[in-house]
User: Fold these one by one.
Assistant:
Number 1:
Amino acid sequence: MPISRRLGAFIVILILSLSFATDTMAAELIVSKAKRMLEYREDGVSREFRIGLGSAPVGRKSRQGDRKTPEGAYFVTHKNSRSQFYLSLGISYPNPDDAKVGLESGFISRAQYAEIEEATRQQLRPLQNTRLGGDIFIHGRGAQSDWTWGCIALDDEDMKFLFEHVRVGDKVTILQ
């Protein structure tokens, strides 16, 4: 193959790979519980949204029914376009750190701990039906107050933006 054809083929492959890399950039969501803000970051773009939290927002979630919003490193497990709270993004709570605290507190068994660890490693939805609780979402229906059972709530228009831009597997960091 002549050099000019090889160079042309190389350029086409380079352009295709760069466009593919751009298409697969992951978004990151950073939640500040103290500021009641969610920051969306992707490919140099950043937007902030006001949020509402669980009705007992201070401190880290440690058990089912405590109405606290978790703190730590998570990822989006699934998207629900038929949520009773407009639209929703599932969060990978409990993560291994949450599970370790739950194991040490006697809230979960070693087998449940191992199942949560394995699901997180495989980027799957972790075990939801333990004394640690589960079903933590980012969802719509209003950011005007702390009213959820531990979820992160946004106004519907903001939730629509996130739902359209966030992918399963994208990082979610929830800070104090």
Note: The domain at 27-175 is CATH 2.40.440.10 (L,D-transpeptidase catalytic domain-like).
Number 2:
Amino acid sequence: MVGPFGADDPAPPGAGDIRWPAGLSPGWSDVWAYGEVAVEAAPGLIFALLITPGRWEHDFSVIRKVRVAPPGGAALGPDSEFEFETNELRLYAQVIEFVADSRLAWSGQGTDISAYQAWVISGQATTPQVRAGFAARGAAAIALRETSVGGAQRTLDRWLADLRIAAETA
């Protein structure tokens, strides 16, 4: 895995699988992170863990205070709105990419931050590769980059590690 990242760092190989939105690609962001992990579980199970925010606080140690906006159900879907905390940042997010069992992304806003996070599940059915990317702009993103060098990368790495553990022990 790679890090720490600012706007001057080039995106690593594999990050091209992520559909970075205009203004929130690695080259345009104040802070960004990218990681990948092989997971010994079916893509559908991995995806189910990512779209079930009611389990995030249990499965992912870097996530707190999750709330899905009404009429949110048990699982995220296209255009779902939700909020959560990570790295002391509160983000209000909306799903902007949803392809069952393979792609999930959301765009979020918080105090002095605009963020994007994406998940891509691909490869073998029994040991797929999960790629994740995070990018953010704004004063809070700059503060995260400068006060916690590599903090965004460590958070994404932890989220990936927790996803692997949750999927492989389910």
Note: Strands lie at 31-38, 64-68, 81-86, 89-99, 103-110, 113-122, 129-137.
Number 3:
Amino acid sequence: MVGVPETGTSDGRDEFRKRIDNMCRDNVKPSLKARVRFLSYVKPTGRVVVPAVVVPTGSEPVYYVDHRPYVRRGQIARLAEPHEVTAVHRDNFLRLGWKSPN
């Protein structure tokens, strides 16, 4: 089990949380709020703190990371194909009551 050494202190954990918050705010659109937990394990060589980052299920049909679209299928988030982005948005508009002009 590999830990993150700087999370062994309260200040280190706060700094780690800030880094995760900044990544979720600056790199993911629409931004999301991740939850960070710190798990402590005792190894023969000493105590190790392992951060666990939990990302909640989002309500948006497509999320963008570094301007690239991602879709989620079950537990897997993957890069979306162009036709999938179109279909997801079309389905979402129809669900919201949008009528096609055709």
Note: The radius of gyration is 19 Å.
